[in-house]
Amino acid sequence: MKIIKVKDTQMGGKEAFKLVKADIENGAKVLGLATGSSPITLYNEMTSSDLDFSNMTSVNLDEYVGLKADNDQSYHYFMKEHLFSKKPFKNSYVPDGSNPDATAATSAYDKIIEENPIDLQILGIGRNGHIGFNEPGSPFDGKTRKVGLTESTIEANTRFFEDEKDVPRFAYSMGIGSIMKAKKIILLAYGENKADAIAATVDGPVTEDCPASALQNHPDVTLIVDDAAASKLK
């Protein structure tokens, strides 16, 4: 793993953008994208750049089950607000959270991933080491599936909803096995509350107890972290 330390999220976005731009200039056509606060400064850099994404494809990691694309708490909506409305892609895929048939929704998304091999995957990380919504205990060879969210993840996401009861309890998530097939991966992490997860990802054993530790087995991973998130690295 390559580790880039930055002073804040703004610098993290700039460093990540350099890597994204370089990969596109080297022929990348499919970007795997993440939601949450960590990639926002990267998306700001992308939307303010002169890069053209109109011939590219994006594939998102996950979506809440039970939310339609036009719900302002859905990840469809998040991506439109932060990226797609300003820099549209030729094709943009997000799991269909409005489909109650988990088997149909996840198998359809696996087909999309198979047809659009990811050149560069952007990741955030949860306080418990989850990537996508692959919570501790998720299989390292997993494909897209319906997952139940842990209490710590629900708690972390409560700030985005008016009431804790409104936070969805399930999501459709790309599996760790699919994430690991990306040619390159960039993981973004900021803040002291991510320090334990980053330490476990980099220095800990490769174990399903920390889903992101699987990245130790990937040939091309870059972590972009601020000093607080890196504070417990050996």
Secondary structure layout plus pairing:
Blueprint: E1 2-6, H1 9-25, E2 30-33, H2 40-47, E3 57-60, E4 62-64, H3 75-84, E5 91-93, H4 102-115, E6 120-123, E7 145-148, H5 151-157, E8 170-173, H6 176-179, E9 184-189, H7 195-203, E10 221-226
Parallel strand pairs: 1-10, 2-3, 2-6, 3-5, 6-9, 9-10
Antiparallel strand pairs: 4-8, 7-8
Helix pairs in contact: 1-2
Q: Could you spell the SSE succession in H and E letters?
A: EHEHEEHEHEEHEHEHE
Q: Into which percentage range does the β-strand content fall?
A: 15-25%
Number of helices: 7
The major beta sheet can be summarized as: 7 strands, parallel
Shape descriptor reads globular
What value does the average pLDDT take?
96
> Class by helix and strand content?
alpha/beta
Stretches with pLDDT under 50, minimum 5 residues: none
Q: What is the spatial order of strands in the main beta sheet?
A: 1-10-9-6-2-3-5
Cα end-to-end separation: 14 Å
Query: What percent of the residues sit in helical stretches (DSSP H or I)?
Result: 25-40%
Number of DSSP-assigned strands:
10
The radius of gyration computed from the alpha-carbon positions, rounded to a whole number of angstroms, is: 16 Å
